[in-house]
Amino acid sequence: MILKMNLGPNSYDIMIKKGAYNKMNEEIKAVYDKQKIYIITDSNVGPLYLDKIKNELHDFKVYSVCVEAGEQSKSFETYKEVLTKLLDLEIKRGELLIALGGGVIGDLTGFVASSIYRGNPYIQIPTSLLAQMDSSIGGKTGIDFYGRKNIIGAFKQPLKVIIDPNALETLPKVEFNNGMGELIKHGCIGNRKLLDMLLNSDVKITEEIIYESLCVKKNIVEIDPFDLKERMFLNFGHTFGHIVELDGHLRHGEAVANGMLMAIQMGIDLGLTNPSCYDTLKKILLKYDLPIKNYDYKEIIKNTVYDKKNIAGEVSFILISDFGAVFAKKISESELLNYECKN
Ligand code: NAD
Ligand code: ZN
Q1: What does the alpha-carbon distance between residue 97 and residue 91 come to, in Å, rounded to a whole number?
Q2: Going by C-beta distance under 8 Å and a sequence separation of 6 or more, which residues neighbour residue 228?
Q3: Distance between CA 265 and CA 274 in Å, rounded?
Q4: Closest ligand 1 atom to Cα of 179
Q5: Between 251 and which of 82, 117, 178, 273 could a Cys-Cys bridge form, CB atoms 3.0 to 4.6 Å apart?
Q6: So what's the pLDDT on residue 307?
Q7: Which residues of the chain have pLDDT under 50?
Q8: pLDDT value, residue 305
Q9: Distance of CA 136 to CAs 26, 98, 140, 206, Å?
Q10: Quick one: which atom of ligand 1 is closest to the CA of 138?
């Protein structure tokens, strides 16, 4: 399946195909006419897929740089290490980078690509569920710094995205959960069909499920490529999610899953959300084995005052009136500190 991201001169194809890695050579030749390619990968993904992909790219001269797996590689140190290795390999202006890995490798490689020679092309080959259904498209790249996530970065769209769902077979269960929370979020905010597919299919990620999930993000990125307005809808479940994530027991996607339930409960209490959404969402989360902790949003809502999206004393809560109908509701800091539900 092919999905097209329409961003004028920065448009690109997103290919979703089981076995796509076997067609890599032709796919890359279609968009890149130089000889050398530099693959950036991590210490988990590299041993699993690097040789296969290198062998497949028989018309190119392929180099690789492998960094330590994990969020800590989205750092200045690793950024510098990758740049140094690329320059040691004598990378030239205009030569292609490939991000082979999860969201960490995608964000890091994209940022390297955005800055080396003021911008070299890069292709995303996402291997985690989170990267396949979300982070590999949209062009947000960056690293963490000063104790803050994604604080240094750039918008840099890839030249192409190649997704092989077969790669998910080697993904650990916790990483699967992490992506699943965000995938279900896409269904909640923009795609009722995706939720129905999740409710009615086996617990297996198909090309169609990834396609439907990416459609939600694509539609939002196309109208708001620089994250000025509508892209905030992708934060559904995140305001509460970030707070419960802080105690360290839940992965980000699992926290978002709980955050979505809280946002729906809050919407129901305020008379703004269709009450049936709660049970439907809970059913899907349980089906995909996401840990549901039954938090009470009223107990943690005061902490949202410290949310990074607290702008001028107001926090924007992303709520849904029904699946597929998302909106923002601003609540002032003083209201939050004295929050009591009207019902
Ligand atoms: P990750 O890249 O750390 O991958 C998770 C783990 O799974 C890693 O240990 C990785 O080595 C391993 N892994 C990946 N694919 C595998 C496979 N096929 N088989 C076996 N192991 C595999 O984390 P992630 O969850 O993919 O991404 C999280 C990052 O994405 C965060 O840094 C987040 O800020 C970023 N993100 C970016 C965007 C964006 O729009 N750019 C959106 C959401 C998240
Ligand atoms: Zn998230």
Answers
A1: 10
A2: none
A3: 10
A4: 25
A5: 178
A6: 67
A7: none
A8: 76
A9: 20, 12, 9, 17
A10: 40
Tell how far the Cα of 238 is from the centroid of ligand 2, in angstroms: 6
The β-bridge relationship of strands 148-155 and 96-101 is: unpaired
Tokens of 219: 């539609």
* pLDDT value, residue 308: 63
137: three-class secondary structure by DSSP: coil
- Spatial neighbors of 87 by CB under 8 A, at least 6 apart, are none
Interhelix angle 173-190/276-287, rounded to 10 degrees, is 150
Q: What is the Å distance from ligand 1's center to 264 Cα?
A: 27
Ligand 1 centre distance from Cα of residue 214 (Å): 16
Q: Please enumerate in sequence order all residues whose Cβ is within 8 A of that of 274, keeping only pairs 6 or more positions apart, or say none.
A: 321, 322
Residue to mutate, 67, 68, 107, 133, ligand 1, most ligand atoms under 8 Å from C-beta: 107
Per DSSP, which regions of 192-242 are E strands? none
Q: Which residue has tokens 């999740």? A: 198
Ligand 1 pocket by Cβ (under 6 Å): 42, 44-45, 48, 69-71, 74, 101-105, 107, 127-128, 130-131, 134-135, 138, 140, 149-150, 167, 170-171, 175, 178
Element at 160 (helix H, strand E): strand 160-163
- Coil, helix or strand at residue 343: coil
Are 139 and 158 spatial neighbours (Cβ–Cβ below 8 Å)? yes
pLDDT given at position 309:
66
Closest ligand relative to 221 C-alpha: 1
In DSSP terms, 261 is beta-bridged to none
> Tens digits of per-residue pLDDT, 25-41?
999 999 999 999 999 99
